[in-house]
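Go through this pair.

…
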Amino acid sequence: MLGHTFYHNTIRRYVILFGTLFNDIHINREDTSQGVTRTIKVPISYGPKEKMLARLDADPELKRPAIVLPRMSFELTDLNYGPTRKLNTIGKIVAANPDDTNSAKYQYTPVPYDLNFILSIAVKNADDGTRILEQILPFFTPNWNSTVDLIPELGIRLDIPIVLNAVSSEDSYEGDFEARRSIVWTLSFTMKGYIFGPTRPANGSSSGQLIKLANVNFYDTSTYTDIDNAVSNLDIVENITITPGMAANGSPTSNASLSVSSDQINANSNYGYIITKS
């Protein structure tokens, strides 16, 4: 599309992040003296709650071990553009190329998108539902921030807010006494993420090689009627040379006598700038 083929696994990372937040929830079974007799880990899977409920209806006695309650499921429902978080489109994120330290890559400012998720909690009694909810709700006030490695090759790590929008419950008990009761809690979330475009080599070249020398000559063109004659003339008014500067201990420097050779300075080095006028 649009002449670029790329894939950063960004949306997949967001889905994994959301599921990981809720994959370690446990509830306790207690006896009459409030002693813990059993601890149950609540399983979670990707899929709509309708699929989970259909499985219960098909096997109400749970003779097959494929599903037990309580359990949770989640799904990504839609994506919406986030105009309030839009930044300057032509801004760049530049980082060293991990495959070649003498070159760099860059990304334009990512596009903000809100990803809407639904988390469904199916339980067979009200107490299990409240036990699970109380392990989730205190952490969302109403948002929870998670740091995610979105573009590892450029070292792009962002804090992604996950906002809890609403909590609702549904008791699906209907019919005769043989019908199985299931209580479903539904939590809606909005993840404020970003979608990144293609990664490009820096400096406008196909390789992205770093520019380690900038050499500028200044001429007095007032004495020439044709600027081409002035540029070709050897009478240089001033020359300015800019090179990277880094001391032997790896610290940046602007002193040419203290700097190592520019060949030893890479894209990810901590360097300064040496400006020489003559």
